[in-house]
């Protein structure tokens, strides 16, 4: 058998000075007024201590020296009938005290310092705020227990198919390499791409103007390089001049060259027969 839960008593607030007043019965529903009490002559003076046990708070009036209990007021809710404020002051309250036999009475209490009255009020508010939160949490947990639970497990023979995107197929083209920090990477060329050379233009059939056809090279070993150069010069002059008549085969091809050489030699008898280019 499980052991019963043990509730511990906690101290919420302690005030060393509190005045207790015997108050007249309330004549109407307009509330209590502290001005109707004998504020200068309290009926008892002592220490006030607020404790809690479970959800119930207790206001205990004790002797300052011995700690003997003078009166006790159990509080089930706040604000409520167990603790009421007066209509004409924030330092005075009316509490309902009870003895062990179940008898109850209403007495007035008051604090000299307004800050003590504020702490007394806040301590009770914080306790019952916690009680409200605990009640809501307990209610939600009970409702969750009564709800049917969802069965999210796989049944026997049940399978599931996952479709994951951005996956490279086996044998597909490789992904481009991403450049790292400080590096440069170029994307690969498209698959199947070829680099073609520029087309070569076809040879033109139009003859080039002023084209000089060099004379055929003589295979004779007796022809010197100077003779070949003179022959090129003669071919160039012939291409620019109008076409002459046919030269007889017996005409000397080097007659003009001999004439030019004799003319130069007559003008400069000391020079050699070679023409300098």
Give a written overview of the molecule.
The chain is α+β, with helices and mostly antiparallel strands and 277 residues long. The chain has a domain at 9-141: Pleckstrin-homology domain (PH domain)/Phosphotyrosine-binding domain (PTB) (PH-domain like, Roll), CATH 2.30.29. The protein is 22% helix and 19% strand. The protein is built from three helices and seven strands, in the order E-E-E-E-E-E-E-H-H-H. The model is unreliable at 263-269 (pLDDT under 50).
Rg on CA atoms, Å: 64 Å
Q: How many helices?
A: 3
List how many beta strands DSSP finds. Answer: 7
Give the N-terminus to C-terminus distance in angstroms.
136 Å
Q: What structural class do the secondary elements suggest?
A: alpha+beta
CATH homology group of the domain at 9-141: Pleckstrin-homology domain (PH domain)/Phosphotyrosine-binding domain (PTB)
Low-pLDDT regions: 263-269
- Please state the overall shape, judged from the principal axes of the Cα atoms: elongated
SS strand fraction: 15-25%
Keywords: Cell membrane, Cytoplasmic vesicle, Endocytosis, Membrane, Phosphoprotein, Protein transport, Repeat, Transport
Organism: Crocodylus porosus
Subcellular location: Cell membrane; Cytoplasmic vesicle, Clathrin-coated vesicle membrane
Region (Disordered): 164-216
